[in-house]
Specification:
Number of helices of chain A: 9
Distance between the termini of chain A: 50 Å
Number of strands of chain B: 11
Helix content of chain A: over 70%
Number of strands of chain A: 0
Radius of gyration of chain B: 53 Å
Mean pLDDT of chain B: 69
Oligomer: heterodimer
Order of helices and strands of chain A: HHHHHHHHH
Helix content of chain B: 40-55%
Radius of gyration of chain A: 20 Å
Strand content of chain A: under 5%
Structural class of chain B: alpha+beta
């Protein structure tokens, strides 16, 4: 599969194109991390994150490739791994207690939201993810999910988002929310 | 539109990325003083970030489920298989090439052996030059027979001079065997060619027959007190009486409609050879056209 074809398929939301890239460059990309003080798990995590960054950029449709996809993903991997190394370095020098406390509180809130997202049901979940992550337009969402028109998709999205907000607010305690 | 609704719309526009710079600045300024708006902003920020994170996790889970080891093992298996195939093809090619070389060498050896044998056989056709009697003529041509590539002269043959001819009894018997090599397989195809197909006396239409090619005329020369320049020819055995050793002679065999015919070429003359059990004198061919034809056959031989 040529780069242009991969890019076109990703823009259409074809996730198998992502699978293709993942398999094709796995060795090359993970080697970058492993040979730079990373573990196999870290390497896989960085590579997956890099692919998702590429997916996001490609989906938004404003990505103009001036190099091969592999070169582009490689540079993303490199940047992500540098950031990760910096984060690890910062963690080792700063006081961890406060950071860990903040992280735990935030993690709890995020976990509540996740649970609420999962309670929405598959359709609402898809609409919100396609809209806020994949950057699909309402017409694309309508087409992808088989709605009659854009307005139907727009109404559905509004209702799903409102329901999620209500679910999360209901589960937050006053103290959690205010903090 | 109330203020709350207005800022809620601004929040939505902010997270959807549709706000202008001035609207965005106004929102940020408002949040500095409006605690509820700031709380709502943080709430929406967490929700949208978690929606995005959920989608990321979904994609990462999808990638995690891909068996990379299997994929690369398959890839490696293909590489190994491809390598093995290349090696096998190379080995087979090398084996075939070596085999062909050996076959070729064997053929060359065989060919060389055949050439050597021919050389040996040709050498045997040379009539040894021994001191000749005063009245013997110089050897001009080797003894050959038509369509016979090799003529073997028996080792025990002796040169007999005219003095020996004067001896009262048969003293020496010289055997000249004419060998025709086995017919090659292709001649199976000419099985249907009959002697009758040949036109008598017309050498242009003469065709070899299987029988012809297998023929072997055994020739003996005998020095005899009584018979000089005689012969008898029976059952493929030709006995020449007289001194035929000093000058080469040649048996010319031709096919015709009436069957095989044999002629003796000796000292530039042609003599009829007919089947006979009795010893008869060699009679020269007198028919001029036949002589001419025999000369052509001899020259083209």
């Amino acid at each position: 599969m040529k780069d242009s074809e991969v890019l076109a398929r990703i823009k259409e939301g074809d996730e198998s194109a992502l699978d293709f890239l993942y398999k094709k460059y796995y060795r090359m990309m993970t080697k970058l991390v492993i040979t730079n003080s990373g573990t196999e798990d870290e390497a896989r995590d960085i590579y997956q994150d890099a692919l998702i960054v590429f997916w996001e950029k490609a989906k938004k449709g404003n990505l103009v490739l001036t190099s091969k996809i592999s070169t582009f993903i490689y540079s993303i991997c490199l940047n992500l791994w540098r950031k990760e190394l910096e984060r690890k370095s910062r963690l080792s020098s700063e006081e961890k207690d406060d950071i860990e406390f903040i992280d735990i509180e935030k993690k709890e809130r995020i976990q509540i939201i996740r649970n609420c997202i999962n309670e929405l049901g598959e359709t609402c979940k898809r609409i919100l993810m396609y809209y806020y992550f994949d950057g699909l337009s309402m017409s694309d969402i309508a087409e992808k999910l088989g709605y009659a028109n854009t307005d139907t998709a727009k109404t559905k999205k509004y209702k799903c988002k409102k329901r999620l907000d209500e679910l999360v607010k209901a589960k937050y305690t006053e103290s959690d929310f205010m903090d | 539109m109330t203020d709350n609704q207005k800022y809620q719309n601004l929040l939505d526009g902010f997270f959807e990325g549709t706000l202008s710079t001035s609207e965005e600045t106004a929102l940020m300024k408002r949040m500095e003083t409006d605690v509820d708006l700031k709380s709502e902003f943080d709430f929406q920020k967490d929700i949208i970030a978690t929606i995005r994170e959920t989608r990321k996790l979904e994609l990462k889970n999808r990638l995690d489920n891909i068996d990379i080891k299997w994929y690369h093992n398959i890839s490696n298996t293909w590489k190994v298989a491809a390598t093995a195939t290349i090696i096998t093809v190379a080995a087979l090619t090398a084996y075939y090439f070596i085999d062909m070389q050996e076959t070729l060498n064997t053929r060359i050896d065989l060919a060389q052996s055949e050439i050597l044998n021919k050389a040996i056989e040709t050498k045997t056709t040379d009539i040894p030059k021994k001191p000749l009697a005063s009245n013997t003529e110089e050897i001009k041509e080797p003894i050959v027979e038509r369509r016979t590539p090799a003529i073997r002269v028996s080792e025990d043959s002796e040169i007999v001079n005219n003095d020996a001819v004067t001896q009262p009894a048969i003293e020496t018997e010289q055997t000249v065997e004419v060998f025709v090599p086995d017919v090659i397989e292709e001649f199976e195809e000419v099985d249907n060619i009959k002697l009758e197909d040949a036109t008598s006396g017309d050498i242009n239409t003469m065709t070899p027959s299987r029988e012809d090619l297998h023929s072997s005329v055994e020739i003996n020369t005998v020095l005899h007190k009584k018979y000089n320049f005689h012969y008898n020819f029976s059952h493929g055995r030709l006995t020449l009486y007289g001194n035929f050793e000093d000058v080469p002679y040649e048996i010319i065999e031709i096919n015709s409609a009436s069957g095989k015919r044999f002629y003796l070429n000796y000292k530039d003359n042609f003599y009829n050879i007919i089947n006979t059990n009795t010893i008869i004198p060699l009679e020269p061919v007198t028919n001029e056209s036949l002589i001419n034809e025999l000369k052509i056959v001899k020259e083209n031989k």
